[in-house]
Design a protein that fits this description.
heterodimer; A: about 300 residues; alpha+beta; Glutamine Phosphoribosylpyrophosphate, subunit 1, domain 1; Alpha-Beta Plaits; 2 domains; seven-stranded antiparallel beta sheet; five-stranded antiparallel beta sheet; 9 helices; 16 strands; about 30% helix; globular; B: about 240 residues; alpha/beta; Pectate Lyase C-like; 3 helices; 11 strands; about 15% helix; about 20% strand; elongated
């Protein structure tokens, strides 16, 4: 099954309370995905010349301050870790590709959940309600966010197998459905230099998007490529630095509903998630047409 | 009728799902099958809940004020259910009799496997409307999505707007009427002549659905070419 939610703020009030709304939406989708939960929140851009990494360590006693010391020696500045349960967000005095490359080399045991300027990804196994509490989601302010509740069908229930999956800098993917050609596609993407860390089908879709974007496709082109190259069922929600995009496979077995008011745009697997938002009863709402890419972007200043 | 009884018959029983558990509402509605009770109900704040007014078996009228989740009015018998909002997957699925009216849009598989009764969708219905219908009548004022009427066995599906791709795929003996355009017909579904008996059938269905602004002559009729009913040796290579 799995549940998906997305919220894009169009007003300062929603931005202030983004985490609270995200938590409520995720809670409603709990019984669609009781195995694991995760969110991507776009917030607090890293200052110019630096980047933001969300890191996850299996070691509950991970010394994040020591890691910040190493990052200071490598890149200067005063990196600080903001710890949220098993994850930590670190601002590094280098651009995202450089920071990520350094982390992979120096600390292969630490998993990089996201890298970029504004994105933060948190995900964990367990009931979504517990996840929301554990990561104090209600505290998070931000411009937009995606969330996922997982009921695993294709691969193991692990933190790494939870959604969202990073698809590049400030990009991520959440998925409701299952892909049937992921093994072959994973093998061909590996030959293109795309790395995979799990046997998960969604990670292959994320890798596919990352590859298409790397080869110069626009987000819309990359998503449209999914219609030809992915075999299976999917409702995808893709997060970008400026907004999000939705795509359903042409058969459309997996649900999706979109709604918009003057204050927000929301996407969810079911209406009951959107019903938690202020002004939902009067929102314009519709079901996205299968095989069509829907995208929202914040106007660039 | 005594005054008190008359008052009960006209009184509207209001149930607010913001404060009343859904199971309590459905249990009270189910209890009407065995013992008398209010004949007119209003349900407030459904907020996308699943299985609202599901499994009714009584001559009651239920009005739902807002959007509902999956399987609203599923398995309905005798009751009249009106939804003032949109519905998620499986509205009135496996309906036996009675009437279900939705003033907004219905999501996928509206009226699926329905055996009788009338489903009226004032807005659009999405994919697989009337899938495997077995006697239900469905009237959609707007358009229907792809694979509507898939394996439809009996009953009538009337669409005032357009139909998506693969309409009536592998259809049996259900009749499909579409006023607008059809993106594509499914396997073994063909256009058939619209004779006087069909115009009369349509006029009756439209009138039952409260549609008074459509002329039966504007519709096209679709049904089974009956080429998939028996094994054809020419197709052996396909297996």
């Amino acid at each position: 099954m799995c549940g998906i939610v997305g919220l894009f703020s169009k007003s300062p009030e929603i931005e202030e309370s983004l985490g609270e709304h995200l938590a409520a939406m995720l809670g409603q989708m709990s019984d669609r995905g009781p195995d694991s939960a995760g969110v991507a929140v776009y917030r607090d851009p890293a200052p110019a010349g630096s980047s933001k990494l969300t890191l996850w360590s299996v070691d509950r006693l991970q010394d994040w301050d020591a890691l910040c010391g190493e990052l200071r020696n490598a890149f200067g500045g005063a990196p600080e870790a903001t710890v949220r349960s098993s994850h930590a967000v670190v601002i590094v005095g280098a651009d995202a590709p450089e920071a990520e490359a350094w982390m992979r080399q120096a600390h292969p045991e630490i998993r990089i959940m996201s890298a970029g300027r504004t994105i933060e990804i948190y995900k964990e196994t367990g009931r979504p309600e517990e996840f929301v509490r554990q990561f104090a989601l209600h505290e998070l302010r931000g411009s937009h966010a995606l969330g996922h509740t997982r009921m695993a069908t294709e691969s193991r229930v692990t933190t790494e197998g939870s959604h969202p999956f990073s698809t590049g800098f400030d990009l991520c993917l959440v998925h409701n459905g299952s892909l049937s050609n992921h093994n072959r596609l994973r093998a061909s993407l590996r030959r293109e230099g795309i790395e995979f860390q799990t046997e998960n089908d969604t990670e292959v879709a994320a890798g596919y998007l990352a590859w298409r974007l790397r080869e110069g496709a626009s987000l819309e082109q990359a998503l449209e490529g999914c219609l030809d190259d992915l075999d299976g069922f999917y409702t995808f929600l893709v997060g970008t630095e400026d907004g999000f995009a939705v795509l359903r496979d042409p058969i459309a077995c997996k649900p999706a509903v979109l709604a918009e008011t003057d204050d927000w745009v929301a996407m969810a697997s079911e209406w009951r998630a959107i019903a938690t938002l202020p002004g939902a009863a009067a929102a314009r709402s519709w079901e996205p047409v299968p095989g069509v890419v829907y995208a929202w972007e914040r106007a660039k200043v | 009728m005594e005054a008190a009884e008359a008052a009960e018959a006209t009184a509207v029983e209001v149930v607010d799902l913001a404060t009343t558990p859904l199971r309590e509402l459905n249990q009270r509605l189910h209890d009407l099958a065995g013992s008398p009770g209010p004949a007119h109900w209003r349900v407030l704040n459904p907020n996308g809940a699943h299985a609202v007014a599901c499994g009714l078996d009584a001559d009651v009228q239920v009005e739902i004020e807002g959007h509902v989740g999956y399987y609203c009015a599923g398995m309905n018998k005798r009751a009249t259910v009106r939804v003032r909002g949109n519905a998620s997957t499986g509205l009135a699925e496996n309906m036996m009799s009675g009437t279900v009216v939705i003033e907004g849009n219905a999501s996928q598989s509206a009226g699926a496997t329905g055996r009788g009764g009338l489903l009226v969708v004032d807005g659009d219905a999405s994919a697989r409307c009337g899938i495997s219908m077995k006697g239900i009548d469905i009237v959609v004022r707007g358009s229907v999505g792809h694979l509507s009427g898939f394996m439809a066995q009996t009953g009538r599906l009337v669409v005032l707007g357009d139909a998506g791709d693969a309409l009536g795929d592998s259809i049996y003996e259900a009749r499909i009427y579409v006023r607008g355009s059809v993106a594509g017909l499914g396997a073994d579904c063909v256009e058939k002549e619209l004779a006087d008996e069909h115009r009369a059938e349509l006029a009756s269905l439209l009138s039952q659905a409260g549609v008074d602004d459509a002329d039966p002559s504007e519709f096209r009729r679709y049904g089974s070419a009956r080429r998939l009913y028996n094994f054809t040796v020419d197709n052996a290579g396909a297996y």
